[in-house]
Amino acid sequence: MTVTQGFLDHKIFQIISDTASSLGVRAFVIGGYVRDCFLGRRSKDIDVVVEGSGIELAEAVGAAVHSHVSVFRNFGTAMLKYRGIEVEFVGARKESYRRDSRKPIVENGSLEDDQKRRDFTINAMAFSLQKEDFGALVDPFGGIRDLAAGIIRTPLDPDTTYSDDPLRMIRAIRFATKLSDGDVKFRIVPESLESIRRNRGRLEILSRERIAEELNKMLVCSRPSIGFRLLDETGLLDLILPQLSKLKGTENVDGHSHKENFSHTLEVVDNIAAEETAAIAEGRLKDFEFVDGVETEKIRTEPNLWLRWAALLHDIGKPATKKFDSETGWTFHGHEIVGARMVPKIFKSLKMPLNEKMKYVEKLVLLHLRPIALVTEEVTDSAVRRLLFEAGNDIDDLMLLCRADVTSKNLRKVERLRQNFELVKRKLVEVEEKDAIRNFKNPITGEYVMELYGIPPCRQIGELKEYVKNAILDGEIGNNFEEADRLMRRKASEMGLVPVNK
């Protein structure tokens, strides 16, 4: 059995081969699909490089398989979908760069020229689609050797590769993170790491959106800490997320030192990746969205990127709140509040969405201590109701984050806290089933109060609604209209309000 069996036996490859032959051009599968073939990983994204016009070959293949072809003439590329896979075509090219831009000057070239411009040796390998040597590996830079050794290395001098396109520095770190799995760990070769340190100032020509895109890809890996440690070691983290860098280090006063918050944060991010992966495999997580104004739920099947961001930023407010008290030691009081306020600024600096996704991260950072407080104190129905009310549909993700946040070298302490978490989870289920607080809607509306008392919008209406809400959350009355109405009328009478409609 050849290594390509099961990877090049898809019908599309033979169609591309036949079509390229009829047009008198040579075509090759290149890049990630080839790399993943040797790693035994399935991929539905295929890149085809053509010694000739990639667009012309794509249009001819599209006609042969009756598939729509999307053409991007500014980039010289075209794409089509066929039987569940996506194929992108590009003409082989050689590139040169200006110092002030990562946009290359492009000329037509050969396969060898195209392989030289690739970011890493493991992404420069190609499979021939020619009839005479179909499936033959074209590997001028030893990518197959580097793949076997778990090495990230550039085809050319790393200073040239990284200076030309500085995004490749972050991509090197992202691939080291993505490809490290279980006992297999990929590493960036020392000369390449040194080159990244030398060229880190070149990040200034990158758009923040492209940087954030690479960070997002790192965060959904199985061990995101690998990437963030490499960002730190190469000096890139200070330029991208200086707020995270400030978590590094410890201080010692009178023999008292605090937890090293940078390492703790990365441990929490890895924990959340493992916790969420296990929960997804067991079908325990749900996502909620509104469709035509109706809230619907579905079982989560992919990692929630924004949960990973919440884990990364959960302690971001600690440097600003760190204080030493001679009696209690180091404290970080209010770091969750400060951290939540920092989230919008961080998202804005990275040009990330400032919509409900950012608000979700902000909420989890703000609430991340609440379940921990519950496991260290008496778990009252009132405290659980208020947590459910504030977290809403994000309660399960919040609980995952808090469980991941339990890190200690004291294994007995970790086990005790996690057992207490199970108690809190059971309490959450009991209270939710009994009181339906997760999606709390106040039984008393402003419109009802205005109609009942014949008053216009005013401060008193808000006070009445808040009074009823607190009574429900504190368990003084049930979450129903009848009890809420009786309580509201008593309070309104104390305020001097008289119903116009008895």
Describe this structure in words.
The protein is α+β, with helices and mostly antiparallel strands. Among the domains are: 1-146, 2-Layer Sandwich (Beta Polymerase, domain 2); 283-435, no CATH class; 446-494, no CATH class. The protein has 24 helices and 17 strands. The model has no long low-confidence stretch (mean pLDDT 89).
Task: Detail the topology: elements first, then pairings.
Layout: H1 11-23, E1 26-30, H2 32-39, E2 45-51, H3 54-65, E3 69-72, E4 77-82, E5 85-91, E6 93-96, E7 105-108, H4 111-116, E8 126-128, E9 137-138, H5 143-149, E10 151-152, H6 158-164, H7 167-179, E11 187-188, H8 190-199, H9 208-219, H10 225-233, H11 236-240, H12 242-245, E12 252-253, E13 256-257, H13 261-281, E14 286-291, E15 294-299, H14 305-313, H15 318-321, E16 323-325, E17 329-331, H16 335-349, H17 356-367, H18 370-376, H19 381-391, H20 395-404, H21 411-435, H22 446-453, H23 459-473, H24 481-494
Parallel strand pairs: 2-5, 10-11
Antiparallel strand pairs: 1-2, 1-8, 3-4, 4-5, 6-7, 8-9, 12-13, 14-15, 16-17
Helix pairs in contact: 1-3, 6-8, 7-9, 7-10, 13-14, 13-20, 14-17, 16-17, 18-21, 19-21, 23-24
